[in-house]
Design brief:
Helix content: 25-40%
Strand content: 25-35%
Low-confidence stretches: none
Strand order of the largest sheet: 3-1-12-6-9
Number of domains: 2
Keywords: Coiled coil, Signal
Mean pLDDT: 80
Protein name: Complement C1q-like protein 1
CATH architecture of the largest domain: Sandwich
InterPro entries: C1q_dom, Tumour_necrosis_fac-like_dom
CATH class of the largest domain: Mainly Beta
Organism: Ruditapes philippinarum (Japanese carpet shell)
Order of helices and strands: HEEEEEEEEEEEE
Number of helices: 1
Structural class: alpha+beta
Radius of gyration: 47 Å
Length: about 230
């Protein structure tokens, strides 16, 4: 009888323990499911936060770019305004010279415009035909050369040893008996260039023949001239 009672209680204990274990396992499974659900929610929240951070960073970059462009634009506007003020103020550096007579020039020979009608600061030398700027800047040069009857030649502007512009003048043959033409043909060129102190600027003849060519100039009909002035 005692053995049976003992076995009964032992079996009941085992059954109760099994029930408790199953209940505990069930509780643990529920806890695991809750943890998984919570982890999933945390991951979704993390993704949402990452997206918000990315949007904030992108917006900051865009704002900085706009600010940078604004500063660059402001600097550009300031620079343009400065240049306009310099132009408005004027540099007062200009010259105008012309040939007093017709002369014959060889290939690569410099044309000396020997008479001045205007020269601020004495920047052009009538003795050698060279303009030398006292300051750096943007300058405009223009020259007119005249070819007499049956003459063709080229002239070029030299700045600092380099050719900066060239023009060809070729006279017609309309002068003669029964014709009213003079046979003179002027040609004009304009060059805008950046030059610096020490740059020698002058006009020279450039042609392929072995004989000199006449550069015509006459105050009663047409002059060969050389002019220049500073823009800014």
């Amino acid at each position: 009888m005692g053995i049976k009672v003992t076995l009964f209680f032992l079996i009941c204990g085992i059954i109760c323990s099994s029930a408790n274990i199953e209940e505990r396992v069930f509780d643990l499974e529920n806890e695991v499911q809750d943890q998984l659900a919570e982890n999933e929610m945390m991951q979704e929240r993390l993704k949402a936060l990452e997206l918000e951070v990315s949007e904030i960073v992108a917006q900051e970059k865009e704002d900085n770019l706009i600010k940078t462009r604004g500063v660059s634009s402001s600097n550009a506007e300031i620079g343009q305004t400065h240049q306009l003020l310099k132009r408005a103020a004027g540099s007062n550096r200009a010259f105008h010279a012309y040939r007093s007579i017709t002369s014959c020039y060889d290939d690569h020979e410099k044309i000396v415009f020997d008479t001045e009608s205007h020269d601020d600061y004495h920047v052009y030398d009538v003795r050698d035909g060279i303009f030398e700027p006292p300051v750096s800047g943007i300058f405009v040069f223009t020259w007119t050369v005249v070819a007499p009857l049956n003459t063709k030649f080229r002239t070029e502007l030299i700045i600092g040893g380099r050719m900066a512009g060239v023009i060809t003048t070729d006279s017609d043959t309309s002068s003669g008996v029964g014709n009213t033409g003079t046979g003179l043909h002027p040609a004009t060129a304009v060059v805008v260039a950046q030059i610096n102190p020490g740059d020698h600027c002058y006009i020279r003849v450039r042609h392929s023949s072995n004989t000199c060519v006449n550069v015509y100039s006459d105050s009663n009909s047409v002059r060969s001239t050389f002019s220049g002035w500073q823009l800014y």
